[in-house]
Amino acid sequence: MVKRISFPSMGWSRIAFRALFEKLPGVEVVSPPIVTREIVKIGAKVSPEFVCLPFKVTLGEFINMIENHDVHTFIMSIDCGPCRLGFYAPIQDKILKDLGYDAEVLPIQQDDLLNFKWAKTLLQLSNVTNPIMKYVDVIHSTRIALIKMSYIADITKLEGLIRCREIKLGDTTRTVDLLMNKLDNEWDVYNLHNFDKVVKREFSKIPIKRNIQPLRIIVTGENHIVMEPFINMDVVKKFGEEGVEVHLVNTLYDWILHKLHINLKRKKLEKLAKPYIPLDIGGEAMWVIGHYIEAQSHGFDGFIHLYPFTCMPENTARGILEGQSPDPFYLPVQFYSLDEHTGYEGMRTRLESFIDLMKANRENNPKFMNNYQEPPEIKAIFDDKTQEDGISRFINHIFTPLANNIGIILKNLFSSEESKPNTREN
Ligand code: SF4
Question: Which of 136, 211, 294, 399 is the one with CA 20 to 30 A from 82?
Fold first, then answer.
């Protein structure tokens, strides 16, 4: 029997989630439609009032898929960390059943990916009887999902860096949509391993302004809110269209590397944040503080923190950033506390005034003058016109497959100081 399944979209992450299940025998994947105001309203209506906004949004997505797409099985990630993510799947399952829907929410465990509990969900879904072949399918699916995840991270990163430079408004958005669509429909492993060339080629077609020094900000916060553009009102795009270079630091790939215990970038951030927040209290709280400290020391112009209105960990992070005495923090920060009632107009006026503040700092405040450095990615895409041929082509085609999967790991291993993880014990 074939099971029709779906999952929450979390922005472009839906491409990686689809990849994780699409090739499992016995599974028919229905990709979730993009989140809309109506979906959020449906979820908020049947959820407890003070539950996290991502809970309401994802529940709304499930109900929409039951009613309009004939899907009755949903995969929801769970954690056993200190915040509420661990309760999402069982409570959403209960709410759906109480509402009379014939539906099930299957949890996929992501608290520690090295314990491989997550694989049980995939093995359960597969209808292959041969146990060895089941594992082969799961390994293949995981591999494809990881590769796609790494490209989603690359594309969204470049999006933030390039949009502020585009000459023709909309070029970056069109390129991102085109690349994501290609990535979603690419299943050939060889082509996937070489997809970095497609990314580079498509972005390099965008006519851009060089020799500008745009304002630079970091956008971070709770993962779902940061990665779901409908919920954060596509703040990355809005800032980009206003000429601000956006460094978007939350990606699914980054999170998965963290859960595999190989994300040394995060360990470095933990170390920076430790004097202010000695342990992981859930959400992205600890890393938000680390990113803020790093952004300030790297001469950024501003910092954007996005989080759900009732999110304990992110509210705590905000309190820490605002409540130091004496205050070592001077990097301008804007907090966006979002819920299902948030509208764009209020955000727009705040966003514009924040840009004015950063511009004034650039012109008058020595702490923000002459700090700008062009990201190396811009040079790599728009200056490097080297055509590969002969041996270099051969070498690239041998090594690129490895590079995308383990590049970040190796880079971190050889360039970052390892720090002790922050746990309750230490
Ligand atoms: S991080 Fe915040 S919003 Fe996300 S599950 Fe935890 S408490 Fe809820």
Answer: 294
